[in-house]
Design a protein that fits this description.
The protein is α/β, with parallel strands linked by helices. It folds into four domains: 2-230, Ribonuclease H-like superfamily/Ribonuclease H (Nucleotidyltransferase, domain 5, 2-Layer Sandwich); 258-461, 2-Layer Sandwich (Nucleotidyltransferase, domain 5), CATH 3.30.420; 484-524 and 531-676, Nucleotidyltransferase, domain 5, CATH 3.30.420; 682-713, no CATH class. Helices cover 47% and strands 15% of the residues. It contains 27 helices and 20 strands. Helix 14 crosses helix 16 (411-438). The two termini are 48 Å apart.
């Protein structure tokens, strides 16, 4: 029996070695193509195109972990069972047929975490259009949104538990030496994506009573009705109370101004800029306020896109990197003290415009001051827009969220940038109308003189942190989701702001872990609400290639290790970089003020600070706790970026991943503490208990595992 199985396996291996086409009997009609030449790629893509003529949906996958072009593997599967395993590193060039196939908006690419796949493929210069996360369809079928492996096991009875078979080390070999089990697993992992789509399509079709016999027409109807609203979205589970919140907001803003026609200009040269400046000037004569915000190039923090909007709906998007020189008209309108520039955290944008391009922006006011006067939540622009304008600024489009805003060309990017800056001017008008009517008795001049001008002076003193995305994590599922996003950010900039909080006085265990990325994502992980640390979180903490930076972070790492048996690796104390930059300050608060010009209000001593440190284990964190914790992590990563900018000011390239690696090797490597190991105190009493425990097990005939002794200690 064993000899027969061995012979069968050898025969299968030989079939792959001799021919890059292989059939599998799991579904009965599966054909596997291993693509390692340009000619083979063209041939296979042509076959997939023929299949999509009748059923325009393709399963897609790739080896997402540690993804790069050198060992990239793209997985594609059609509804007829044709599976293509495309080894990019084996191709002399990427054929045009593959480019067009992936970019074809009429072909839907389905899978789980497909946004991450699309982002990874974009690193190789491949753009994937019309992607759909299968979990949206699972929700429509009233199934719990789960991983691909769980969906496959639940609905197809197909087991996917060997993801290690997709790792790069298995795919660096020549085609004739590939392991047949790895090949079959890769094909199976992408085949389940298209099979799940077919299953969900059949279930939803039966519920909606589609009676269309033509297959292509039926599938297209299904895509238009059930799939298109979720195209290109990063999957996010819908909250139960989302609809209720929206209804409440609608009532509150029923009297808001009617929407206006929007006029959007994307400006790339001096002539276009001058023409639009004339229109903005004319609008400012009637209403001397402009909305202002910026979009940045991730870690270097340089401004790539300047957005200005007038009250009439005119929006100007300036692609600053494309200008050889800036026209005087643009500089004059920014420097004009009689034109108020309004925005959310506008002082940060003003400072960056001055530092990067020498623009001196006059008369800028932060909308948060007006929001506080109206008693609205001030720190989140999306929430402000929803509450005051009934206007949703949130986007789940991976193309927008991963954009560096250097050469915006997609309609989705343009629309999103315009929406943000239009929201700033609309919010100002909303607050002005409300405050003039309720507080200043119809006197608009008094509103400007007493409120706006007072805060203009305040803005000169301190800057604000860049916009944050704060995620509060209280269970393993939420933790897994947020760690995936942390990983994606770390692929490009492998540094995390790191801090821990626990109750004082008397707190023993770490209650809250803060991890912040270079793009403003800050995860507040409530360890006090979890029984154990999830495997994904432990892996990122123990990853030596990801730096964890903070002030005295080794103490937090040691406490975390002692409490949860985690060996935190790659720890760097920012004090070392502060000394190299000749900073006088040492604490997080003083460094924030000296280096970033950001004042941390909750860091001052007194009642507020004491109350915050007593409530980390409460059922729900209040706003002060959340902002305090998020600022600690966010300031740490911003300090690191500022130190990198100062110490490597003359030595940088367009590749930020390469830049940060060079900076770490040159300035950080000698100060890194690789591991914060948990202490193991062995008292005489503990040793006696261990000895008696082991002796008892020996008497019972039980072999004591070494890990049991480690836990006992």
């Amino acid at each position: 029996m064993n000899k027969g199985n061995l012979a069968a396996k050898k025969s299968a291996v030989n079939s792959v070695k001799s021919n890059t086409n292989h059939r599998s009997d799991l579904w009965g009609n599966q054909e596997i193509h291993i693509v390692d030449t340009v000619e083979k790629c063209k041939e296979v893509v042509k076959q997939l195109r023929l299949h999509t003529n009748k059923y325009n949906v393709i399963g897609i996958g790739c080896n997402t972990r540690n993804f790069n072009q050198k060992f990239a593997l793209i997985l594609l599967a059609s509804y007829l069972g044709s599976c293509a395993l495309i080894r990019l590193h084996s191709l002399d060039k990427i054929p045009r047929e593959l480019w067009k196939f992936l970019e074809d908006k009429n072909i839907v690419k389905v899978g789980v975490n497909v946004a991450e796949i699309a982002i990874n493929l974009s690193k190789c210069g491949l753009y994937v259009a019309s992607i759909l996360d299968l979990r949206y369809l699972a929700q429509q079928c009233n199934y719990p949104p789960e991983s691909l492996a769980l969906l496959s096991a639940s609905h197809l009875k197909v087991v996917l538990i060997e993801n290690h078979r997709l790792e790069r080390k298995h795919w660096t070999k020549p085609t004739n030496k590939l392991d047949i089990q790895n090949v079959e697993y890769a094909a199976k992992s992408v085949r389940v994506a298209i099979e799940l789509f077919k299953k969900f399509e059949n279930e939803i079709k039966s519920k909606n009573l589609y009676h269309v016999h033509d297959l292509r027409h039926r599938v297209q109807m299904f895509i238009n009705k059930n799939c298109k609203p979720h195209f290109n979205h990063i999957y996010q589970k819908k909250k139960e109370n989302e609809n209720q919140t929206t209804e409440t907001v609608n009532v509150n803003v029923a009297q808001n101004d009617k929407p206006r026609n929007r006029e959007i200009h994307v400006i790339s040269n001096v002539e276009e800029c001058r023409a639009v400046m004339k229109k903005l000037r004319a609008h400012c004569k009637k209403y001397n306020v402009l909305g202002l915000t910026c979009k940045y190039e991730s870690t270097k923090g340089s401004v790539n896109l300047l957005q200005l909007a007038s009250h009439c709906g005119l929006c100007a998007l300036f692609r600053l990197r494309t200008f050889d020189k800036f026209p005087v008209e643009l500089q004059e309108i920014l420097e004009d003290k009689n034109i108020l520039k309004v925005g959310h955290r506008v002082s940060f944008h003003v400072d960056k415009l001055e530092g990067d391009y020498g623009f001196c922006v006059a008369s800028a006011i932060d909308l948060r001051y007006l929001a506080k006067e109206c008693e609205y939540p001030a720190d989140d622009l999306e929430l402000l827009s929803n509450t005051c304008l009934n206007f949703d600024l949130k986007t789940l489009d991976w193309r927008v969220l991963s954009s560096d805003w250097k050469y915006i060309s997609l309609r989705e990017e343009i629309d999103y940038a315009a929406k943000i800056v239009h929201a700033t001017i609309d919010l100002f008008k909303f607050f002005e109308k409300k405050l003039v009517a309720e507080k200043y008795l119809g006197n608009r001049t008094k509103f400007f003189d007493e409120l706006c001008l007072a805060h203009l002076k305040e803005e000169i003193q301190y800057s604000t942190l860049p916009p944050q995305e704060i995620r509060i994590v209280s269970n393993a599922a939420e933790c897994q989701s947020v760690v995936e996003r942390l990983r994606i950010h770390c692929d490009r900039y492998n540094v995390l702001g790191f801090d821990c909080e626990w109750n004082t006085p008397g707190g023993r265990k770490v209650a809250l872990l803060q991890l912040a990325t270079y793009r403003g994502l800050c995860a507040l992980i409530r360890l006090c609400k979890m029984k154990t640390i999830p495997v994904e979180l432990q892996a990122i903490l123990e990853d030596e290639n990801i730096l964890k930076v903070g002030i005295m972070p080794h103490k937090d790492g040691n406490r975390l290790g002692n409490n949860y048996r985690v060996e935190v690796s790659g720890i760097l104390d920012l004090k070392h970089l502060a000394k190299k930059c000749k900073c006088k300050a040492e604490g997080i608060r003083s460094l924030s003020e000296e280096v970033l010009n950001v004042k941390l209000d909750y860091k001052k001593r007194g009642r507020i600070s004491r109350e915050i440190h007593k409530s980390w284990e409460n059922d729900k964190l209040n706003d002060e706790n959340i902002q305090y914790a998020a600022n600690d992590g966010h300031v740490a990563i911003e300090l690191f970026k500022k130190f990198q900018q100062k110490l490597m000011s003359t030595n940088h390239s367009d590749d930020q991943t390469k830049d940060v690696k060079q900076f770490i090797d040159k300035h950080c490597a000698s100060h890194l503490k690789k591991k914060a190991k948990p202490k193991q105190k062995k008292t005489a009493k503990t040793k006696q208990k261990i000895a008696s425990f082991g002796h008892l097990n020996v008497q019972k005939g039980i072999q004591t595992h070494p890990k049991i002794f480690a836990i006992c200690t």
